[in-house]
Amino acid sequence: MYRPVSCKMPPLKHNEKGEERRVGVEIELSGIDYDELVAITTRFLNGKSSSQGRYVDAIETVDGQFLVELDSDPVKDLEGPDENLPEPLRKLAEQAMDLFDAAAERIVPLEIVAPPLAMSKLQLIEDLCEHLCDQGALGSRHALYYAFGLQLNPELPSLDAPGILRYLQAFAGLYPLLKSRHQLDISRKFTLYIDPWPEAYVRLIMDDDYQPDLDQLITDYIAHNPTRNRALDLMPLFAHLRPERIEQEIGDKRIKPRPTLHYRLPDCDIDNDDWQFATVWNDWVALEELACDPDRLAAFRASYRKRHSFSLNNLTYNWVKESELWLDGKTPS
């Protein structure tokens, strides 16, 4: 039985324009066939759905446009049988397409993409996950090949280098704990798109002397992370801030510029009684609380550096256990 949890608000609730910050959410799942998922989601959101193409439906709601789609561009781009074919061949092609679709839905996750929602409205996503669980939705434990992700795209409260860096430092130190909490041990073993930041990059950004301007911050990130395939992906943010640089130096058409971080670490474990969307979100809020407290963040970085230096004591030290205290708002003695 899915147990809903309340979604918390971050310490900084507004962006640089004074508007409430927003967050995009992407939920991957299986267990419900495509047409049924569209119908269930449309009814729950009290929206109106319309087909946008093969395996892509839009749902218009008072909160914006949600999308339901099969998370595979090659499958979505397939065209149906040519209407000019003789009827026997057309029927055969339709049957083949039906078989292909059935196989695709068993292997490739279905995805619900929410519009950027005000953070005060995120309880809608928690309630939607509860409803989908009740309707038979399945998560990563049931994936045949690819784990199903829950991706968050939180808008940042400020877009200057010091503000961005604080978030990166908090995430870098908390990554082992977040991974242990929100990514299944068996997940994504066939995929590479969830890599952590390299250790050399983490050492760089956790150093007290590292105080880059925005262009240097981008340069260093690209030097160590020339890819979208990171647990916390900064390419959309940097494409928003310096579009010409990301286009020239990365050149990946899949990068969508936006003033957000792209947090792609968590799995969607929607049918697990101990999993809730709000738990994932609330851990992110706790990360923000650390990032927005300069004194605690400085102490956190110092402890991280101490515990990751070479010493006999550190060989058996449990950094994840200490990280739990930091994430819970405590300062270890």
Key phrases:
alpha+beta, 7-stranded antiparallel β-sheet, two-stranded antiparallel sheet, globular
Overview of this protein structure:
Residues 73-82 and 92-97 have low confidence and may be disordered. This protein is an alpha+beta fold. Strands 1, 2, 3, 4, 5, 6 and 7 form a seven-stranded antiparallel beta sheet that branches. A two-stranded antiparallel ribbon has the order 8-9. The chain folds into two domains: 21-138; 152-333, no CATH class. The protein is 43% helix and 13% strand. The longest helix has 22 residues, at 161-182.
**How many domain modules?**
2
Compute the gyration radius: what is it? Answer: 21 Å
Fraction of helical residues = 40-55%
Q: Which class do the helix and strand fractions yield?
A: alpha+beta
Order of helices and strands: EHEEEHHEEHEHHHEHHEHHH
Mean pLDDT: 88
Distance between the termini: 39 Å
Overall 3D geometry?
Answer: globular
Compose a concise summary of this entry.
The chain is of the alpha+beta class and 333 residues long. 43% of the residues lie in helices and 13% in strands.
Sequence-ordered SSE layout with sheet pairings:
Elements: E1 22-29, H1 34-45, E2 48-53, E3 56-61, E4 64-70, H2 73-76, H3 87-107, E5 110-113, E6 117-118, H4 123-134, E7 150-154, H5 161-182, H6 199-206, H7 214-224, E8 232-233, H8 235-241, H9 243-249, E9 262-263, H10 277-291, H11 294-307, H12 319-327
Antiparallel strand pairs: 1-5, 1-6, 1-7, 2-3, 3-4, 4-5, 8-9
Helix pairs in contact: 5-10, 5-11, 5-12, 8-9
